[in-house]
Amino acid sequence: MTRSSSLRRSALVLRWGACAGLVVLACGCRERERTAGEQAASVRFDVRVSAVERAPLQRHVRVTGSLYGEEQATIAAKVAGRVVGLYHDVGDVVMPGAELARIEATDYELAVAERRRALEQALARMGLEALPEADFSVDALPAVERARLQAENAAARHERGRVLHERVPPAVSDQDFADLRTAWEVAMADHELARLSARAQLAEARTLRAQLDSAEQRLADTLHRVPDGVRPSDRVESDGADAKAEYAITARHVAVGDFVNVGAALFEILDPDPLEARVRVPERELARIRVGLPARLRVEAYSEEFVGRVARVNPAVDVRTRTFEVEILVPNAQRRLRAGSFAKVAIESEIDDQALFVPKSAITTFAGVHKVFTVKDGKAAERVVALGESVGERIEITSGVSERDGVVVQPPAGLVSGAEVRIVVDGSAESVGSEVK
């Protein structure tokens, strides 16, 4: 026999030996498991049983989101120029109207002076010291009054010439009478022209006034302030009070000496009270969410809950995510919550009067599967259950047991389905066949 044949035979023998060993090992394991199960089944366990209780339960819609300031804005430059003053920085709390930054104002002051002199010149041409009201009549202007008097004089001369021209024989020739009539018509035209010219001068003066107002506004805009206005939450104050907002500065984007253009960001501010939790709720919960529902909120920084209410519900569902946005106002008078924080939110919806509860100690969990033990004919029966809301030391069971069942509290180690049990009540044991109904 060749050496290669001998090696193949040896390998075959080793392979058959290994397979036989595995078979023997598997049989032994199954035998030990069967023996252990039989031993467990033969042992009688003393257990305490609790009834499945039906009780009212406040249902929640649980979602996550982030906190935002109810009002947050970027203060941008209204005019171009060099920054010459900064009066606040990040972290400062400021009131509406507080000064934030100033832009160099020299160019804007000169523009105001130029527009003011132009307006004064226009008013002087009309013989006015101040711009009149909108219902002002131009007939009171000196130039128009002069033209009116000339027209009246020409009319009087024409009337006298007519009388003389109509005498027999005429005292005024036809040519002279025609000249008088022409002079009268020219004077009337000059009067109307003076009125039109006065209206044009008055309109020009009003244009210059508007340009002056614009220049003064640009000059005023060199000083940037915290905006003042009505917040959305002010409109829903229960007592109708006009609450004054406070703003916190969250960012500063410029330094003294920087040149900024119109629209350049200077500061970012937000209103920290109340904060607004924005969450996205699945479409299936649409019927359960409405404005005014209370909500409880948790953040990582604190162990306690914060209470808010649903303030706005987006009427449209996002077609991409099949969710809709809900905004929850959370009072933050102590400034403990911070905008940008991640929040876990539980929105209180309806109350369920048919919820089933068992003690938490009755639940056993392995590999993500939740189970309880019930007692039937004196033996333990294992049931897979689905868990719901947790309330104190009790937990809701949504499927797997009924109100007629009783569950084993703190199942003893080694308790398996089919094991004989003895129900212990107040330290005494009932018969083996006892069962909680």
Can you walk through the features of this model?
With 437 residues, this protein is an alpha+beta fold. Among the domains are: 87 residues, Efflux pump adaptor protein, beta barrel domain (Elongation Factor Tu (Ef-tu), domain 3, Beta Barrel); 81 residues, OB fold (Dihydrolipoamide Acetyltransferase, E2P), CATH 2.40.50; 107 residues. The protein is built from four helices and 23 strands. The strands form five sheets. It has a six-stranded antiparallel barrel with strand order 2-11-14-13-12-15. The two termini are 78 Å apart.
Question: Could you give the topology of this structure?
Answer:
Blueprint: H1 3-42, E1 44-51, E2 53-69, E3 72-76, E4 81-86, E5 93-94, E6 99-103, H2 106-126, H3 142-165, H4 174-220, E7 223-225, E8 247-252, E9 259-260, E10 265-270, E11 275-282, E12 294-299, E13 306-313, E14 323-330, E15 342-359, E16 364-366, E17 369-376, E18 379-384, E19 386-391, E20 394-399, E21 406-409, E22 420-425, E23 428-429
